[in-house]
Write a structure and sequence with these properties.
about 200 residues, alpha/beta, Rossmann fold, 6-stranded mixed β-sheet
């Protein structure tokens, strides 16, 4: 099985982080409190360029798997425009909950908006990592929980039995999945092969 893993385009949070890095007086600023960061105009443009660059790879995929966070869905929609490939949205491949922008929309909201996609593995309304009492309170997800999600995703891939997949996800999830110390840049694609017996 081949998995073509791509990170979403530049998001509002990525842009905030870039602005913070180039302005030393902002290094100690707290991250913004917005949830479910969307793509910036640059992120949309990155996704458009990636859709052209990787069109031959994407059109050969049997399945698209995408995170439920808006920035990933927006990227996936640009990458797959005009293609008739089944799409699964699953929290198995969402970002490690680390900042407020990693808190998404509820399962009901996603289900209402994305009827054309298969939504899987949503075991609760507020599906992101949280304390169960206040789902909008940031509770950081540790690396072991992230590793468990990666293993569950690998099991899902094995059960699905497809040969070629496009995965649209996030920095920390993809670093763990790819076992890479270097995070993918926005809209960078890396292909890995697995042999399930």
């Amino acid at each position: 099985m081949k998995v073509h893993a791509i990170r979403h385009g530049r998001s509002e949070f990525n842009q905030w982080r870039i602005n913070q890095i180039v302005r030393p007086w902002k290094w100690f600023d707290e991250p913004p409190e917005f949830t479910d960061a969307k793509l910036t105009l640059e992120g949309v443009d990155q996704a458009r360029r990636a859709s052209e660059k990787y069109k031959d790879i994407i059109k050969n995929c049997e399945l698209i798997i995408c995170s439920p966070l808006t920035r990933a869905i927006q990227t996936m929609q640009i990458l797959t425009r005009g293609l008739d490939i089944p799409i699964v949205i699953t929290p198995l491949v969402t970002e490690r909950t680390d900042t407020m922008c990693d808190i998404g929309r509820t399962y009901s909201e996603l289900k209402a908006e994305y009827k054309m996609y298969e939504l899987l593995h949503f075991d609760k309304e507020h599906w992101w990592h949280n304390d169960g009492e206040d789902p909008m309170k940031l509770v950081k997800e540790d690396k072991e929980l992230l590793a468990q999600r990666v293993r569950a995703f690998m099991d899902f891939l094995a059960d699905r039995g497809v040969k070629e997949v496009l995965l649209v996800s996030h920095c920390h999830f993809l670093s763990e999945f790819l076992e890479s110390w270097r995070p993918l840049a926005n809209c960078e694609l890396k292909t890995v092969s697995f042999n399930y017996s």
